[in-house]
Each structure stands twice: as C-alpha cells, then as structure tokens.
Specification:
The chain has helices at 11-23, 34-44, 60-69, 104-117; strands at residues 3-7, 27-31, 48-52, 76-80, 96-99. With 118 residues, it is α/β, with parallel strands linked by helices. A five-stranded parallel sheet has the order 2-1-3-4-5, with helices on both faces. β3, α3 (60-69) and β4 (76-80) form a beta-alpha-beta unit. It starts with a strand and ends with a helix.
Length: 118
C-alpha cells in the first residue's frame, strides 16, 4: 500500500481527495499547511507527496524546495488553480503538475504514471 502525504489547506478538497485515495487502497496522511507538510515529509518519509501551491504558513513550492534540500527524493505532485506558466521563478523540483480542479481519473492517472517510475 503506497503511503501518500496530501498537503491541502481546503478541508473539503482534502476530505474528498483523501477519501477517494483511501477507497483506491492508498494510505493517506493529510497536512493542512506547508509547514506541517514539511514536518511530516521529514518525519514520516512518505512514498509520494501531493501538495497544493497556495497555502498558509508556507507555499507548496517553498515546502518542496525545503524538503528536497533536506534530502527527500520521493515523487511530488504539485496542484494549483494557478497555471504552471504563471508560477514565480523557483528552484523547487516537483515531478508532476495538476491544474485544479482536477478529476479523480486525472489524479489516479498521475499516481500510476509516477508509480511506474518509482
């Protein structure tokens, strides 16, 4: 069972997404902001991270950058309503971008794509 960390500040999105992933036999831990997400990445070393871009306390890009600098090498999916082309210049290294709102099939397809590379 793949261990996923979902970092999402919108409680409705977090609940629906985590429920769908758990229904598909993934083990999901949820963090409600980037600071807590970073703490969980470093403590629990999830096999895959799905994170929102705009969050309180620390953005998804900042969280990714700090996690990579600390040695986290697992795949990361970055999700946002902001088009990827409009992101500020950054050094964060995420593996896949999903435009919000995304459907269940798009997320599950992205997960399968990344699982085959693991």
């Amino acid at each position: 069972m793949l261990r996923i960390l979902l970092v999402e500040d919108d409680p409705d999105v977090a609940q629906v997404t985590s429920g769908m992933l758990e229904y598909c036999d993934y083990h999901v831990t949820v963090a409600s902001n980037g600071r807590y997400g970073l703490d969980l990445i470093l403590q629990e070393q999830p096999e895959l991270v799905i994170t929102d871009f705009m969050m309180p306390m620390m953005s998804g890009l900042e969280m990714i950058e700090q996690a990579r600098e600390a040695g986290y090498a697992g795949p990361i999916i970055l999700c946002s309503a902001v088009p990827e082309s409009q992101f500020p210049p950054h050094r964060a290294r995420y593996d896949l971008y999903l435009q919000k709102p995304y459907g269940a099939s798009a997320l599950l397809s992205a997960l399968e794509n990344l699982r085959t590379r693991m």
